[in-house]
Amino acid sequence: MPFRRREPPGTNLALLDVMSCGLGAVILVLMLAKPHLATTEIPAQAEVLEAELVGLNARREALNAELARAESEAERERVRVLALRRRSGVLEARRRDQSLETAQRRSSLSAVESLLENRPDPPTAPTPDTVELEANNEAEYLIGLKVEGRRIAILIDASASMTEERLIEVIRRKTGTPDERRAGPKWQRARRVLRWLLARLPPDSQVAVLTYAEKAEFLGEQRWTDASDSAALGALAVALDEVDPRGPTNFRAGLDAVWAERPDSLYVVTDGLPTQGRERSLPRRFLSGIKGGCGNSNTISGECRRALMNEAIDRNWNGRVANAILLPLEGDPEAPAVYANWTRGTGGRLLAPSPDWP
Question: Which residues contact 312 (CB under 8 A, 6 or more apart)?
């Protein structure tokens, strides 16, 4: 049998059918409209999200730039701190060196003052520590060197050769620092020789101390010092401690400066003949027998050195007493005879001291 829908009594079937059709139409309209709404909302949300993403990327780049600046500043600060630490270390080392140097100077000054206060009388007995070399190179022992005169000049060779006895060691010292040159054993010995001479000055005398290398220079604040002024004599010894032994040996420069002060006696502390002077202006009589003359090359021969020595003596000598203390140097065999001739002719002495003097 055909199916028949059963409705409650009083139901208007026609009205229900109309309502059902209307509801279906509304549902159909909604179904057709929803895809359109989705297609319009999604692009708008994507634009918002993209704008937020751009903003976040810009913020990230700004933060990265700020971080890079902070790291660069931190690196600069680190480098500055390291530089300050290195500078502090250098200053501390310099302070220690200066403290040590000050202590050494005070010790030297005290030693000189002690020597001056307890200065013994000139020796009267033969002393085997002092040797005189005559022109014939024969050595004989003699009574100790006596420091005499009213105006006494002490001329100290401060050239590079005054650091060592062997030439190879002299060359090595030349390339070193000033402190390394001052530490040379022969220069230390020259400093002791000066102290020995200062300790034996006559009480009523005056002394002038000069060094010479390429040029001559006076030690101390004034050119002449009273032998009775122990503090000033100590200052002269300390002043020599600061001299840097370097350069050639210009004996003429030293003698020119000495004789201009008109001393009545001279004590020269050196180790050989000159290596520099006015070679091109040497008088002809000093160049006799020298092949090619002097001053025409970068080296200097023994004959030229002897000529420079003789010219310096001839130019400056006026009958005053000259003494020389000749320290050893390898490769200068003519020096003892030349200095012996000069000092003996003035009434002075040439001393070639033993290794344990003074």
Answer: 251, 252, 255, 274, 277
Question: How many other β-carbons are positioned within 10 Å of the β-carbon of residue 71?
Answer: 10
- In whole angstroms, give the CA distance from residue 29 to residue 330: 124
Q: How far apart are CA 283 and CA 275, in angstroms?
A: 17
Beta pairing, strands 206-212 & 126-133: unpaired
Residue 31, pLDDT above cutoff 80 = no
- Region of 214 please: left (phi>0), alpha (psi -120 to 50) or beta: alpha
Give the domain extent around 22: 14-118
On whether the CB atoms of residues 309 and 273 are closer than 8 A, the answer is yes
pTM over 0.90: no
Q: What tokens does 83 get?
A: 């530089």
Question: Is 68 in the same domain as 188?
Answer: no
- Does residue 35 surpass a pLDDT of 70? no
> CATH number of the domain that 203 lies in?
3.40.50.410
- Residue 298 shares a structural domain with residue 266: yes
In whole angstroms, give the CA distance from residue 341 to residue 331. Answer: 20
Tracing tokens 């903003």 back to the chain, one arrives at 55
Total count of residues recorded for the chain: 358
User: What is the bridge-based pairing of β-strands 321-326 and 206-212?
Assistant: unpaired
Which of 118, 148, 168 finishes a domain? Answer: 118
